[in-house]
Amino acid sequence: MPMAGGRSNGEPGDASRLVWDLPLRLTHWVLALTVTGAWATHYAGSRWFGWHRGLGYATLVLVAFRIAWGFVGTRHARFAGFLRGPRVVLDYLRSRPLPATAGHNPLGALSVVAMLASLLLQASTGLCANDEISSAGPFYGWLTPAASNRISALHQANAKVLLALVIAPIATELPEKFNSVLWIRQRKDTLALGNITGAMVFQSTFPVSIGLVFTSWQLTGDALVAGLLALVSGTVFYTTLRVRHTLTWWSLGGAGSVYFIYLVYVFAIAD
């Protein structure tokens, strides 16, 4: 099972071994620095735009390397080593307890793909984006102003998606990981397991509660569409569990497609 620092433990008595190779670990750490720096320089003002653009170039190069390394790299770095189809992901979710895996598990692999896709989209759209004042990407002059403005809107929208992808695992998993590692080292395996399962319940309710407190509850057209689509997605899950007593690939895909419908509504239909 992957441990902190990209290590994996085998059976009792086995030595720890590194799961991810040095180039991949260096890429992860440098990406964390470039993305953080790009975010900070974006809000620091126009005088930092040169740094922002340079960090964007670095991010694009790192993502391109990670994608290439996913085809020619070591075993656990290759996409073929951890990407699985919908049936394997469903079988993994149904397993109790969840099986230990070296590297990314079938579900975690999807987050890797989402992160890489979001990073690639963010860095590439930045090449053509502009702030409608004084700053622009190097390919701004190759496009019409209207086309550049549309790409700029996509650049800004994807920044929120990227921020969510970065913060979500840190905010939800890091405290529990620290506690669980400490308790396992103290031979309190049961306590560690209870912390993980209890955290799942906490994480599924606490963020929602915060959202309810700070929501203005002005049900505009966008809010109504989002609410209706969420009800449709929840109904699909509930009906499937009531009738089949298990989740199926088509129920997960059908419910998930609702989110794509909402994205189409936001970017193509809504004002």
Total discrete domains: 2
CATH class of the largest domain: Mainly Alpha
The CATH homology group name of the largest domain:
Transmembrane di-heme cytochromes, Chain C
Low-pLDDT ranges: 1-16, 194-202
Order of helices and strands: EEEHHHHHHHHH
Annotated CATH topology of the largest domain: Fumarate Reductase Cytochrome B subunit
CATH architecture of the largest domain: Up-down Bundle
Averaged pLDDT: 76
Our estimate of the beta-strand percent is under 5%
Q: Distance N terminus to C terminus? A: 47 Å
Quickly list its features.
9 helices, 2 domains, three-stranded antiparallel beta sheet, Fumarate Reductase Cytochrome B subunit, 71% helix, mainly alpha, 271 residues
Description of the structure:
- With 271 residues, the protein is mainly alpha-helical.
- The protein contains nine helices and three strands; from the N terminus they run E-E-E-H-H-H-H-H-H-H-H-H.
- The protein starts with a strand and ends with a helix.
- Residues 1-16 and 194-202 have low confidence and may be disordered.
